[in-house]
Amino acid sequence: MDSGCSNHMCGTKELFCVLDEHFREIVKLENGSSLTVIGKGNVMVRFNDKTQVITGVFFVPGLKSNLLSIGQLQEKGLAILIQNGKCKIYHPAQGLIIETTMSSNRMFILLAQCQTNKQTCCNAMTEESARVWHRRYDHLHYNGLKTLQKKNMVHGLPQIQEPAKLCEECMLGKQLRDPFPNHSTWRATKVLQLVHADICGPISPISTSNKRYFLSFIDDFSRKIWVHFLTEKRSIQCL
């Protein structure tokens, strides 16, 4: 534990359970030198049979000692009591969570068991999570997602369990529609044997006589066209 350290720091990458390697920062030491921070994340530790997640930890490669910032702990709402050669940390809801005794060189060293990424279990996955990954990769087939996970081609991709329910978007996107025929398979052989009807509207702006629709009739044999202008659709009468 360090009262002069502005941030939690860890020099071992394997101890992080969550790590953002895009984070960059420069940390200045008391002797004027500086260290480069190449990541920020969370470290899961176990104190006195209680598992705690330390958030906002800087990843500083080569750091010999892992530092726990007292100031950063207080910002999280924890209370630190240093008295009679002991340092105690209290959580507002859990009470006493960490206790350590001062060493011979007047330092408070915490002995904790760290849970690394290697212990993370990704075998169980809900069908809903599988569908989320399916959509993230533009509806990639589930066998393709399993290949990405098996070959470690995607960081953080868990094991995929194909859901029983089919993807509705994939079903709609892969359906085929027959094209409209260029020529009719049957034509009328006499007048008014077959009449094509169609209605169009509402049209904006409306006509000078307040008509917003027009109804057309086309005789299939003679190709004669009748057009009737309408105010509303309900004005159409059955013929």
Helix content: 10-25%
Note the beta-strand portion: 25-35%
What's the count of strands? 13
As for the number of domains, it is 3
Structural class: alpha+beta
CATH class placement of the largest domain:
Mainly Beta
Question: What does the overall shape look like?
Answer: elongated
Keywords:
239 residues; alpha+beta; Cathepsin D, subunit A, domain 1; 3 domains; five-stranded mixed beta sheet; three-stranded antiparallel beta sheet; 4 helices; 13 strands; 13% helix; disordered C terminus
In a nutshell, what does this entry contain?
The protein has 239 residues and is an alpha+beta fold. The chain contains four helices and 13 strands.
Structure commentary:
The chain folds into three domains: 9-119, Cathepsin D, subunit A, domain 1, CATH 2.40.70; 127-166, no CATH class; 195-233, no CATH class. The protein has four helices and 13 strands. It has helices spanning 70-75, 127-136, 142-150, 168-174; strands spanning 9-10, 16-20, 25-28, 34-37, 40-47, 50-59, 79-83, 86-91, 95-101, 113-115, 195-200, 213-219, 225-230. Strands 1, 2, 5, 6 and 10 form a five-stranded mixed β-sheet that branches. Strands 7-8-9 form a three-stranded antiparallel β-sheet. The radius of gyration is 36 Å and the shape is elongated.
